[in-house]
Design a protein that fits this description.
The protein has two helices and 15 strands. The chain has 281 residues and is mainly beta. It has a 15-stranded antiparallel β-sheet that branches.
Length: 281
Protein backbone atom coordinates (compact mmCIF):
# COMPACT_ATOMS: atom_id res chain seq x y z
CA UNK A 1 0.00 0.00 0.00
CA UNK A 2 1.47 3.36 -1.03
CA UNK A 3 1.34 6.51 1.06
CA UNK A 4 -0.96 8.24 -1.43
CA UNK A 5 -3.48 5.41 -1.15
CA UNK A 6 -3.85 5.66 2.66
CA UNK A 7 -6.84 8.06 2.74
CA UNK A 8 -8.72 5.87 0.25
CA UNK A 9 -7.80 2.81 2.31
CA UNK A 10 -9.20 4.36 5.50
CA UNK A 11 -12.43 5.33 3.73
CA UNK A 12 -12.71 1.76 2.41
CA UNK A 13 -12.25 0.37 5.95
CA UNK A 14 -15.09 2.56 7.19
CA UNK A 15 -17.40 1.43 4.36
CA UNK A 16 -16.55 -2.24 4.97
CA UNK A 17 -17.17 -1.78 8.70
CA UNK A 18 -20.71 -0.57 8.05
CA UNK A 19 -21.32 -3.30 5.47
CA UNK A 20 -20.07 -6.00 7.87
CA UNK A 21 -22.26 -4.70 10.68
CA UNK A 22 -25.33 -4.58 8.42
CA UNK A 23 -24.69 -8.08 7.07
CA UNK A 24 -24.18 -9.50 10.57
CA UNK A 25 -27.37 -7.87 11.76
CA UNK A 26 -29.31 -9.14 8.72
CA UNK A 27 -28.16 -12.74 9.30
CA UNK A 28 -29.27 -12.77 12.94
CA UNK A 29 -32.82 -13.28 14.23
CA UNK A 30 -34.69 -10.02 14.74
CA UNK A 31 -34.12 -8.86 18.32
CA UNK A 32 -35.22 -5.90 20.35
CA UNK A 33 -32.79 -2.97 20.05
CA UNK A 34 -30.74 -2.25 23.17
CA UNK A 35 -32.20 0.26 25.57
CA UNK A 36 -30.92 3.79 25.02
CA UNK A 37 -29.33 3.91 28.48
CA UNK A 38 -27.50 0.59 27.91
CA UNK A 39 -26.32 1.71 24.48
CA UNK A 40 -25.13 5.01 25.95
CA UNK A 41 -22.85 3.09 28.30
CA UNK A 42 -21.51 1.02 25.40
CA UNK A 43 -20.62 4.19 23.48
CA UNK A 44 -18.52 5.26 26.48
CA UNK A 45 -16.47 2.04 26.34
CA UNK A 46 -13.68 2.44 23.73
CA UNK A 47 -13.28 -1.37 23.51
CA UNK A 48 -16.98 -2.36 23.59
CA UNK A 49 -18.86 -4.50 21.05
CA UNK A 50 -19.95 -1.56 18.94
CA UNK A 51 -19.14 -0.53 15.39
CA UNK A 52 -19.33 3.26 15.36
CA UNK A 53 -18.72 6.02 12.85
CA UNK A 54 -18.09 9.21 14.86
CA UNK A 55 -17.67 12.65 13.31
CA UNK A 56 -16.10 14.96 15.89
CA UNK A 57 -16.22 18.72 15.14
CA UNK A 58 -13.80 20.87 17.18
CA UNK A 59 -13.69 24.67 17.19
CA UNK A 60 -10.81 26.53 18.87
CA UNK A 61 -11.08 30.29 19.43
CA UNK A 62 -10.05 33.19 21.67
CA UNK A 63 -6.64 33.98 23.09
CA UNK A 64 -3.99 34.64 20.42
CA UNK A 65 -6.49 33.55 17.73
CA UNK A 66 -8.69 36.57 18.52
CA UNK A 67 -11.90 36.32 16.53
CA UNK A 68 -10.42 33.68 14.22
CA UNK A 69 -11.27 30.02 14.68
CA UNK A 70 -9.28 26.84 14.07
CA UNK A 71 -11.59 24.10 12.80
CA UNK A 72 -10.72 20.43 13.27
CA UNK A 73 -12.96 17.58 12.09
CA UNK A 74 -11.93 14.09 13.23
CA UNK A 75 -13.48 11.09 11.50
CA UNK A 76 -12.92 8.14 13.88
CA UNK A 77 -14.37 4.80 12.68
CA UNK A 78 -14.22 2.04 15.32
CA UNK A 79 -14.35 -1.65 14.33
CA UNK A 80 -14.34 -4.49 16.92
CA UNK A 81 -13.18 -7.90 15.62
CA UNK A 82 -13.24 -11.33 17.27
CA UNK A 83 -9.78 -12.93 17.32
CA UNK A 84 -10.76 -16.11 19.19
CA UNK A 85 -12.87 -17.13 22.18
CA UNK A 86 -10.59 -15.26 24.57
CA UNK A 87 -9.59 -12.13 22.71
CA UNK A 88 -11.02 -9.30 20.61
CA UNK A 89 -9.16 -6.57 18.79
CA UNK A 90 -10.68 -3.13 18.38
CA UNK A 91 -9.38 -1.02 15.49
CA UNK A 92 -9.81 2.74 15.85
CA UNK A 93 -8.76 5.03 13.00
CA UNK A 94 -8.42 8.80 13.37
CA UNK A 95 -8.56 10.90 10.20
CA UNK A 96 -8.16 14.63 11.02
CA UNK A 97 -9.19 17.46 8.70
CA UNK A 98 -8.00 20.94 9.71
CA UNK A 99 -8.77 24.48 8.60
CA UNK A 100 -6.27 26.91 10.14
CA UNK A 101 -6.22 30.73 9.74
CA UNK A 102 -2.94 32.27 8.61
CA UNK A 103 -1.45 34.88 10.94
CA UNK A 104 -1.04 38.40 9.57
CA UNK A 105 -3.33 37.84 6.58
CA UNK A 106 -6.98 38.65 5.77
CA UNK A 107 -9.47 36.63 7.88
CA UNK A 108 -10.45 34.43 4.95
CA UNK A 109 -6.90 33.23 4.29
CA UNK A 110 -6.62 29.70 5.65
CA UNK A 111 -4.69 26.47 5.18
CA UNK A 112 -6.92 23.41 4.86
CA UNK A 113 -6.32 19.70 4.43
CA UNK A 114 -5.96 16.45 6.33
CA UNK A 115 -3.37 15.81 9.03
CA UNK A 116 -1.46 12.64 9.87
CA UNK A 117 -3.76 9.62 10.07
CA UNK A 118 -3.47 7.46 13.19
CA UNK A 119 -4.41 3.81 13.70
CA UNK A 120 -4.97 2.38 17.20
CA UNK A 121 -5.30 -1.37 17.87
CA UNK A 122 -6.61 -2.48 21.27
CA UNK A 123 -6.33 -6.17 22.21
CA UNK A 124 -8.97 -6.76 24.87
CA UNK A 125 -10.48 -9.82 26.65
CA UNK A 126 -13.59 -11.13 24.89
CA UNK A 127 -15.20 -11.71 28.30
CA UNK A 128 -13.93 -8.88 30.52
CA UNK A 129 -14.30 -8.83 34.29
CA UNK A 130 -15.25 -5.88 36.46
CA UNK A 131 -12.21 -3.99 35.15
CA UNK A 132 -12.29 -3.57 31.36
CA UNK A 133 -9.04 -2.93 29.55
CA UNK A 134 -7.38 -2.93 26.15
CA UNK A 135 -3.77 -2.45 25.05
CA UNK A 136 -1.81 -2.46 21.83
CA UNK A 137 0.09 -0.29 19.35
CA UNK A 138 -0.70 3.12 17.91
CA UNK A 139 0.75 4.15 14.55
CA UNK A 140 0.91 7.56 12.87
CA UNK A 141 1.27 7.88 9.10
CA UNK A 142 2.70 10.99 7.33
CA UNK A 143 -0.44 11.65 5.29
CA UNK A 144 -0.84 15.39 5.99
CA UNK A 145 -1.82 17.61 3.06
CA UNK A 146 -2.07 20.69 5.32
CA UNK A 147 1.46 22.10 5.46
CA UNK A 148 0.87 23.74 8.86
CA UNK A 149 0.51 20.32 10.56
CA UNK A 150 2.78 18.28 8.32
CA UNK A 151 5.35 16.18 10.22
CA UNK A 152 6.72 13.97 7.43
CA UNK A 153 7.32 11.27 10.06
CA UNK A 154 6.22 7.70 10.64
CA UNK A 155 5.62 7.11 14.33
CA UNK A 156 4.71 4.24 16.64
CA UNK A 157 4.11 3.66 20.34
CA UNK A 158 1.88 2.00 22.94
CA UNK A 159 -1.77 2.74 23.69
CA UNK A 160 -3.82 1.65 26.71
CA UNK A 161 -7.39 2.07 27.93
CA UNK A 162 -8.79 1.05 31.32
CA UNK A 163 -12.35 1.57 32.57
CA UNK A 164 -14.94 0.42 35.06
CA UNK A 165 -18.73 0.54 34.92
CA UNK A 166 -20.49 0.86 38.25
CA UNK A 167 -24.16 1.81 38.47
CA UNK A 168 -24.76 4.89 36.32
CA UNK A 169 -21.02 5.68 36.23
CA UNK A 170 -18.46 4.87 33.53
CA UNK A 171 -14.97 5.77 34.78
CA UNK A 172 -11.66 5.32 33.04
CA UNK A 173 -8.85 6.70 30.98
CA UNK A 174 -7.06 6.31 27.64
CA UNK A 175 -3.43 7.14 27.00
CA UNK A 176 -0.81 6.76 24.29
CA UNK A 177 2.72 7.85 23.40
CA UNK A 178 4.18 8.24 19.89
CA UNK A 179 7.83 8.31 18.78
CA UNK A 180 9.24 8.83 15.29
CA UNK A 181 10.85 5.76 13.72
CA UNK A 182 11.29 7.09 10.18
CA UNK A 183 10.65 10.15 8.07
CA UNK A 184 12.05 13.02 6.06
CA UNK A 185 14.43 14.48 8.71
CA UNK A 186 12.78 17.90 8.34
CA UNK A 187 11.74 19.58 11.58
CA UNK A 188 11.54 17.95 15.03
CA UNK A 189 10.71 14.29 15.48
CA UNK A 190 7.32 13.22 16.83
CA UNK A 191 7.48 12.73 20.60
CA UNK A 192 3.87 13.15 21.69
CA UNK A 193 1.84 12.04 24.70
CA UNK A 194 -1.96 11.94 25.09
CA UNK A 195 -4.08 11.21 28.16
CA UNK A 196 -7.87 11.33 28.18
CA UNK A 197 -9.60 10.63 31.50
CA UNK A 198 -13.34 10.13 31.23
CA UNK A 199 -16.05 10.37 33.87
CA UNK A 200 -19.57 9.73 32.59
CA UNK A 201 -22.77 9.84 34.63
CA UNK A 202 -25.69 8.21 32.82
CA UNK A 203 -29.23 9.54 33.16
CA UNK A 204 -32.52 7.96 32.01
CA UNK A 205 -33.50 7.78 28.31
CA UNK A 206 -29.96 7.79 26.94
CA UNK A 207 -28.83 11.11 28.40
CA UNK A 208 -25.43 11.43 30.04
CA UNK A 209 -23.10 14.04 31.53
CA UNK A 210 -19.43 13.73 30.74
CA UNK A 211 -16.00 14.99 31.69
CA UNK A 212 -13.56 13.83 29.00
CA UNK A 213 -10.79 16.39 28.34
CA UNK A 214 -7.85 15.44 26.15
CA UNK A 215 -4.52 16.36 27.77
CA UNK A 216 -1.61 16.37 25.33
CA UNK A 217 2.12 17.00 25.57
CA UNK A 218 4.50 17.67 22.69
CA UNK A 219 7.84 16.80 24.26
CA UNK A 220 9.72 18.22 21.22
CA UNK A 221 8.27 21.72 21.74
CA UNK A 222 10.17 24.46 23.62
CA UNK A 223 9.68 24.86 27.37
CA UNK A 224 6.33 26.44 28.14
CA UNK A 225 4.86 25.28 24.83
CA UNK A 226 4.57 21.56 25.55
CA UNK A 227 1.21 21.07 27.30
CA UNK A 228 -2.44 21.48 26.31
CA UNK A 229 -4.74 21.15 29.35
CA UNK A 230 -8.50 21.62 28.81
CA UNK A 231 -11.08 21.67 31.60
CA UNK A 232 -14.85 21.55 31.06
CA UNK A 233 -17.99 19.43 30.79
CA UNK A 234 -20.35 18.01 28.20
CA UNK A 235 -23.74 16.42 27.63
CA UNK A 236 -24.68 13.54 25.32
CA UNK A 237 -27.79 11.77 24.09
CA UNK A 238 -28.27 8.37 22.45
CA UNK A 239 -31.35 8.24 20.24
CA UNK A 240 -32.42 6.96 16.83
CA UNK A 241 -33.08 8.43 13.40
CA UNK A 242 -35.69 6.01 12.14
CA UNK A 243 -34.21 2.65 13.11
CA UNK A 244 -30.62 3.90 13.05
CA UNK A 245 -29.11 4.40 16.54
CA UNK A 246 -27.10 7.60 16.82
CA UNK A 247 -25.24 9.54 19.49
CA UNK A 248 -25.08 13.32 19.82
CA UNK A 249 -22.69 15.11 22.17
CA UNK A 250 -21.79 18.71 22.95
CA UNK A 251 -18.81 19.72 25.13
CA UNK A 252 -17.10 22.96 26.13
CA UNK A 253 -13.53 23.21 27.45
CA UNK A 254 -11.39 26.09 28.65
CA UNK A 255 -7.74 25.52 27.75
CA UNK A 256 -6.07 26.53 31.00
CA UNK A 257 -2.64 25.60 29.58
CA UNK A 258 -1.80 25.64 25.88
CA UNK A 259 0.88 26.65 23.35
CA UNK A 260 1.03 30.37 22.58
CA UNK A 261 -0.27 29.88 19.03
CA UNK A 262 -3.55 28.16 20.00
CA UNK A 263 -6.84 29.44 21.38
CA UNK A 264 -8.27 29.59 24.89
CA UNK A 265 -11.62 27.90 24.17
CA UNK A 266 -12.72 24.61 22.64
CA UNK A 267 -16.24 23.67 21.60
CA UNK A 268 -16.75 20.06 20.50
CA UNK A 269 -19.80 18.62 18.77
CA UNK A 270 -19.87 14.90 17.96
CA UNK A 271 -22.29 12.91 15.83
CA UNK A 272 -21.95 9.10 15.68
CA UNK A 273 -23.71 6.35 13.75
CA UNK A 274 -23.94 3.27 15.98
CA UNK A 275 -24.03 -0.42 15.00
CA UNK A 276 -24.22 -2.75 18.06
CA UNK A 277 -22.51 -6.09 17.50
CA UNK A 278 -24.36 -9.21 18.70
CA UNK A 279 -21.88 -11.88 19.83
CA UNK A 280 -22.72 -15.57 19.85
CA UNK A 281 -22.48 -17.07 23.31
Amino acid sequence: MTLSSLPRYVALVAILAVAAAERSRAQQPEAAPPAASDLAKTTQNPVGDLVSLPFQFNFFSGGPLGDRTVYNLNFQPVLPLRVNERWNVVARTIVPYLSIPLAGTPPDDRKTGIGDIQEQLFFTPANPGALIWGAGPILSFPTATNDLVRTGDWAIGPTLVVLKMTGPWVLGGLMNQLWTFGGDDVGPNINAFLFQPFVNYNLPRGWSLSFAPTFTANWSAPEGEKWTVPLGLGIAKVDAIGKQPVSLALQYYRLVEHPSSTGDNQIRFAFSLLYPVARKK
